[in-house]
Amino acid sequence: MKFNEKLIELRKERRMTQEQLAIQLGVSRQSVSKWELGECEPDISKLKEIGKLFNVSIDYLILDDEPLNDKNENSKDSFYNITIIKILPSVVIGIGGIGFIVSVILAFLYPHYSCGLNCASIIGYLFKDWCSNAVLWRFGLFLPSLLCVLIPIIVFMNNYNKNNRKK
Predict the structure, then answer these.
(1) Using an 8 Å Cβ cutoff, are 74 and 113 in contact?
(2) Over the stretch 82-132, which tens digit does the pLDDT of each residue have?
(3) How far apart are CA 89 and CA 12, in angstroms?
C-alpha cells in the first residue's frame, strides 16, 4: 500500500474530510487532495504531524508493504512474532494452571499437622504453617504457578488497553 492509499484509509477511519485534515495540518485542502491522488507527497515536517495525528510511525506512512529484507529474515520475524507473542503466553498460562491445580489438590490430599497447628486447608498452608512442607509447597509450587497464570494475563490486559487507547 502506498502513502496516498494509507493517508486515505487513515483519514476515513477517523471520519475526517480532506478539509478537516487540512485545517489540522495547517495546509490547504488542495494539498491534501494532491497527496491522496499521489501527485505529490508532504514534506518531512507534515509527515511528522500526520504520524502524530493518526498515531502511526513515519516508516509506516512512507514505506510500501513490500518487504525490504530477504525472505529469510522475514520468516524469522514472523516465527518470532507467532512464537513469542502469541504462543508463549498460552503455554506459560497452561503450565501455571496445571501447577496451580496440582498444588491445590496436594494441599487437600496431604494435610499438614506439624508445628502443633491444624493446617488442613489451603488457608492454613498459606498463612499459618511455616514448617518445611508448607513452605516448600507455598514457594516451590503454589506461588510460582499462580504467577505463571497471572503475569501473562496482566501483560495481555495492559497491551489490550494500550491498543484500545490508540484507537
Answers:
(1) no
(2) 666 677 777 888 888 888 788 777 766 766 555 555 555 656 656 666 566
(3) 35
Q: Per the structure, how many domains does the chain have? A: 2
Parent domain of 76 = 71-166
Under 8 Å between Cβ of 129 and 119: yes
Structural domain ending residue among the three candidates 62, 90, 105: 62
Specify whether 161 is located in the same domain as 127. Answer: yes
- HSE-CB of 17 using CA atoms within 13 angstroms: 6
Grid cell, residue 102, equals 496440582
Tell me: the pLDDT tens digits for 39-73?
A: 999 999 999 999 999 989 888 888 876 433 444 44
